[in-house]
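Regression check, alpha-D-galactopyranose case 393:
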Amino acid sequence: MNTNKDTLIKQTKDAFFEKFSQIPEIICVSPGRINIIGEHVDYNNGLAMPVAIDRYLCVAMSRNHNRRINAFSTNLKDMFSSDLDNISETKLWHKYVQGSILEALGNKKCDSGINLLINSDIPMGKGLSSSAALELSILSATLKIFSIKLSDNEIIDRCQRVDHKYIGIKSGKLDQSACLLSKENSVFIIDFNNSSIEYIPIKLKAASWVLIDSMIKRELASSKYHERVEECQEAFKKLSTEISGLSNFRDINEEMLFKIDALPINLKKRVKHIISENQRVLKMKDAITSNNVRDIGYLLRESHESLKKDYEVSCKEIDYLLKSSEKLSYWHGGRIMGGGFGGSTLNLIKKGYEKEYIKVISDLYKKKFGIICEPHLISFVNGVETIDNISAN
Ligand code: GLA
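Current build output:
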């Protein structure tokens, strides 16, 4: 049993009843996610190792008879109402709601509208995929309520379309895949080239995962993200004219890469990260399978160096958090996680030292930047859950 999840579900049901005087037909609960390794490779058809974590977003939903979307967010304390056929979104979260409903419905004509309520304990905008959890739980609830059946891949594709079409972020499929497909006590490797996945049991008895949120949120983060996406597209195009039959960055190695004069140095660095990060994902599988915390820590640190020097998505605050951690004997390793340019570090800590680590690192960070960072101790959980047959009590 997961207390915060059960409490959140109960709160969501009660809040929905208070708002709409109905018992919800469906509640969908999506976890947030971290990514152990494989950063900025999803939109390059590479490999990643994400996993869902014990922070949740709940969506309670029922049909109504007026063909309107009536949505309430308990976190934002904001309500909106719009015509199902006549989309008039204003705020960002309205776009997520409407986009997810429309993507779920596709061409299906329906006579009813939707009442929904969102309630979440996933920190928003902190790189834990609160927005993927929002898309996924609204989309899954809508599919269930209107008896529409889609494969997992199609669900992930439609969530990604919400990002691309309604939000204007050209993200990959890492976040939605993690929130949908995760299994408790496992991580998984996903190959974005063909969407195949492989689950890897994880039982690190002697170590814990700790996130440290730097509280840095760069204004430019999304434009910088797009810059990286475009650089990779350009690099792939240039490489394809030099190497016949190139179908994936995994077809080349670093030695081949540096022989290609047509590629400017900044693009070479981006590709170098992708090549080495894909290899690290496979090495991570071995390290996890053999419970080797030293190797896991080493790979996390290598990944950070690559994200910092070659992919250039780190920042001084995150680098400071990691550099300061290096001096601590109970810190196995860590790296910047997610889209970058701020956000959180993911750290592997010797069991029993979690509190000490959090205290030491928070004090150092506050002294250096005057910022109070936010720690999160996490555990790995299953993906999206749909609950129907909801009773009044
Ligand atoms: C963000 C995007 C993901 C992925 C990561 C970087 O979280 O939403 O698709 O690209 O950044 O790995």
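Comparison notes: The chain has eleven helices and twelve strands. The longest strand covers residues 47-64. No diff flagged against the previous build.
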